[in-house]
Specification:
CATH topology: Transcription Regulator spoIIAA
Number of helices: 4
Distance between the termini: 27 Å
Structural class: alpha/beta
CATH class: Alpha Beta
Shape: globular
Strand order of the largest sheet: 1-2-3-4-5
Length: about 120
């Protein structure tokens, strides 16, 4: 499941991800994100992973397609999670985007929000 919230007048997208994401989850979410990219040119993303179990094959395909299409339209990505593989996602994603990526622990969600909105230059632990 994906929960979507706009921050900073739509310059930042806060995405709460839980369960196992399927292509259907992206059908509702991606048009909203593309609308914000059309409006602002570049946006930042705060990904909050809570009880997140990854993607179905269709969900992964939708995520990869979006990433390839919009890699130049994302300025910052703050990832919040508590699993080793979630931290690993931050490392694996870096070569495929020009976005600055930082990983944060769940207790650092406020710091992640500040970083992704550009309110602080502090780096995550």
């Amino acid at each position: 499941m994906i929960e979507f919230n706009e921050l900073n007048d739509g310059h930042v997208v806060e995405v709460k991800m839980s369960g196992r994401l399927a292509r259907e989850d992206y059908r509702h979410f991606l048009p909203e994100v593309e609308r914000l990219i059309d409006r602002h040119g570049k946006i930042s993303v705060l990904m909050i992973m809570e009880d997140f179990h990854g993607w179905s094959p269709g969900g992964l395909a939708a995520d990869v397609q979006f990433s390839l299409k919009h890699s130049q339209h994302i300025d910052r990505i703050a990832m919040v999670g508590d699993k080793k593989w979630e931290r690993g996602m931050a490392i694996v994603c870096k070569p495929f985007t020009s976005a600055r990526i930082q990983f944060f622990q769940p207790y650092q969600v406020d710091a992640a929000r500040d970083w992704v909105t550009g309110q602080t230059k502090a780096e995550a632990a």
